[in-house]
Structures are given as C-alpha cells and as structure tokens.
Amino acid sequence: MRAVIHMLDFLLVIPTFNEEKFIKEMISNSDRLLSKMYKNYKIVIIDAHSVDSTIDIVKDISRRIQKVEILESGIRGKRGRDVLYGMRKFNSKLYCYMDADLSPSVSYIKDLVRKQRSGYDVVLASRYGLGSKLWRPPLRKAFSRAYNIMVNLIFGDKVTDHQCGFKLFSKKAFNEIYRDSEEDHWAWDTEAILIAYYKKMKMCEVPIRWNERRNRRTGIIRLLKDICIFVPSLIRLFYRFRISRSF
Ligand SMILES: Nc1nc2c(ncn2[C@@H]2O[C@H](COP(=O)(O)OP(=O)(O)OP(=O)(O)O)[C@@H](O)[C@H]2O)c(=O)[nH]1
Ligand SMILES: [Mg+2]
C-alpha cells in the first residue's frame, strides 16, 4: 500500500550514506527551486543508516519543511533498490533522483522537466554529452568514459553518461522500469537506461556542467573497486539484455 494516495506533481528522491557535508545545501537548493515550479512536490531522502549526522540534519529540516521526508533503507549497499523504494512510496506525475553531492546541479531540474514536457519519458543528465562540462580526477574520468563506451558497444545505445546520479522519469516510464529492475546497487543506473532503451521509450540526455567536489584525487584502490563492481555487473547486464532477453 502506498503511503500517499494523492498525486504529486514532482517527486525528488535523494539516496544518502554519510552526506552531512552536502545534504543541507542539497535540500535547500532543491526546495527553493521546486517551490517555484510546483505546489505539490516532495523531497524524499532515503538513507542507508548513515553514521555521521546526516539523519539528524534531515530530521531537523523535515520538521521545518513539510515537503521533506526521510525514509530509512534496510541495509547499506542497495542504492538502486532504495531509490526505487523511495519512488514507489509515492504517487507522482514525475519521478526524479539525484545524488547528494550533485547539489550545485539542482537548477538543471528545470531543463530536464522542459525536455520531458517536449515528449520524452526518460531524461538523463549527462556529464559527457555535447555542451557538458566536467571536472573529475583524470583517472576516474577515463574509467567512466571507457565504461560508457563499452556499454554503447555492447548494447548499441547512444547514451554518453549511464552512471550519472540524476535522472527524470515520467510516471509511465517509472512504472515499467520499476517492474523490470533487477539490479539493486550501482548497476541499477545503467540497467534503468537499458530497460528504457530496449522498450523503445523516448529518451534523451541533457548536458550539465559539474565540478566533482568529493574526491579530488582517484586512488588506485578506488579504481580497482570500481572495476570489481562494474565488470561483473556488465556481464550480468549482457546476459540479461543480449542473451536471455528477459525484459
Ligand atoms: N541509500 C543509499 N545511498 C547510498 C549508498 N551508498 C552511497 N549512497 C548515496 O548515493 C549517492 C551516490 O554516491 P557517491 O558516493 O557520490 O557515488 P559516486 O558518485 O559513484 O562516487 P564519488 O565519485 O565518490 O562521488 C550519494 O548521494 C550517496 O550518499 C547506499 O548504500 N545506500
Ligand atoms: Mg558522487
């Protein structure tokens, strides 16, 4: 049973784990923007048991701003499933999610919504598409570019940024993606795009300008961790979408 029966105009879901540095700014930026765009909106934080002061900060804001709500995730390491859970709890015309450290990009919500209104069901923010501008540590950027090209070569889609934690779905697209999602952590971002691609949904990218604020350097351990996460998930996605075609 869904928690809210009435229809929202816009739902923003923010997954968090230890985001005390960014979450306040993220919520106030998005609330300021959304209050100018909609009467009926919600900002939902889905937290994976942060051990810093994220939960206290959000609870404090939610006492003051009625549009803000916090949900607690079962366990850490299920970011994709958490985003879907947060979205599924509400009935909305538009569903958007955004990583907490992307807060300077909140104003791009307007561009994503504009694109959606022009007839797209899935609108993706892109840090690599034409017109975008990005500063990221070189090693991380190179890995991310290689990952996107690999996905393009394997599946034939033209998306330039699969893993950007900032996407907007129409109600219809969200329902289909929700129904078909199997990945529950990082790979879900790519899986959601592949579901939309194979189901021939109308999908486009919006370029964003973004400066990575969290990790100014990429250590070799971080890179190895990424490889260990994304190689197996690519194999799983390959099997599902190209071999068993179960979608
Ligand atoms: N619910 C939930 N959120 C998470 C979890 N892990 C990370 N997050 C949140 O998911 C978003 C993306 O995480 P990041 O750590 O920024 O991931 P990233 O962008 O790939 O890596 P960075 O380059 O370090 O920023 C952030 O808002 C995190 O707080 C988790 O296990 N569960
Ligand atoms: Mg990040």
Primary descriptors:
Spore Coat Polysaccharide Biosynthesis Protein SpsA, Chain A, 7-stranded mixed beta sheet, two-stranded parallel ribbon, 18% strand, globular, binds guanosine-5'-triphosphate, binds magnesium ion
SSE inventory with pairings:
Elements: E1 10-16, H1 23-37, E2 41-47, H2 54-64, E3 68-72, H3 79-88, E4 94-98, H4 109-117, E5 122-126, E6 133-135, H5 138-155, E7 166-170, H6 171-180, H7 188-198, E8 203-207, E9 209-211, H8 220-244
Parallel strand pairs: 1-2, 1-4, 2-3, 5-8, 6-9
Antiparallel strand pairs: 4-7, 5-7
Can you characterise this structure?
With 247 residues, this protein is of the alpha/beta class. The chain has a single domain (10-244), classed as Spore Coat Polysaccharide Biosynthesis Protein SpsA, Chain A (Alpha-Beta Complex). The protein is built from 8 helices and 9 strands. The strands form 2 sheets. Strands 3-2-1-4-7-5-8 form a 7-stranded mixed beta sheet, sandwiched between helices. It has a two-stranded parallel ribbon with strand order 6-9. Helix 5 runs parallel beside helix 8 (220-244). It binds guanosine-5'-triphosphate and magnesium ion (MG).
